Amino acid sequence: MVRHGRRRFGILAAALLAAGISSPAFAAQCGNNAGGFNNWIGQFKSEAAQRGVSPRTLDSAFRNVRYATKTISLDRNQHTFKLSLEQFMAKRGANAIISRGKQLKRSNAALFQAIEKNYGVPAGPLLAIWGMESGFGSFMGNQHTVSAVATLAYDCRRSAYFTDQLYALLDLIERGWVSPEFKGAAHGEIGQTQFLPRNVINYGASGDGNRSVDLRSKADALASTANFLRAHGWQRGGGYQPGQTNFRAIQGWNAAGVYQKAIAIIGAEIDGS
């Protein structure tokens, strides 16, 4: 499922064009099936090279790329967000997340205290996101990330938005933050709280003090999530239920109303508020 403000992809594309940074998707021919994918990859690589992406990065990133059929299938069949709040909470295992979240809050007290000190975000909503996104890191995805993002960049439905994500992913590969064979979720989400590549670059933060960012690390993933929420308007000490100060920051995390409300409810239960 596509997360973290992804509903604004049209605005992003317009901003890129206004800045004179046209998305190569407008030049390379998009498609709605696997037939033109390999040709699109060739066009994209040529355009990426013209924009300064190194041959080494392009060669390593696309060496094993393939059309991600599962990604397209899931992208066309996102039914979870059509559930009622009660159905969504049950499907996501809210009670189990609350129970496990309380345990993790106690056993990682120093980490959550440091994050709240630095970003103003308490443990509850972070644990709610962590639990719902990856089962507290138990499953971060098994899809070839470059293939997933490249497939969505090629796909005509949201080509401009995911082409930007593909450039961000190449940047992460160039930096050494992810490997060309990195595996994540079906839409290219990365790590324990499932950031898209552009969000890793924009909001990635080190939670363990070593200055690098590895979202497979719980400390980095949670610090990055807190940084994302702060950048989307989180105010220290404010409430985060619907209608309260910080609910808007939670809305920035995911466009689906049931997901937003689930974060608020589960977070409050974990925080005991």
From TrEMBL:
A Pfam family of this chain: SLT_2
Tagged with keyword Aminoacyl-tRNA synthetase: no
Domain of life: Bacteria
InterPro entries given in the database record: Lysozyme-like_dom_sf, MltB-like, SLT_2
Molecular function via GO: peptidoglycan lytic transglycosylase activity
Stretch forming the signal peptide: 1-27
Gene Ontology BP annotations: peptidoglycan catabolic process
Residue ranges annotated for the Transglycosylase SLT domain, each copy included: 37-240
Alphabetical UniProt keywords: Signal
Protein name (Swiss-Prot/TrEMBL): Murein transglycosylase
Originating species: Pseudohoeflea suaedae
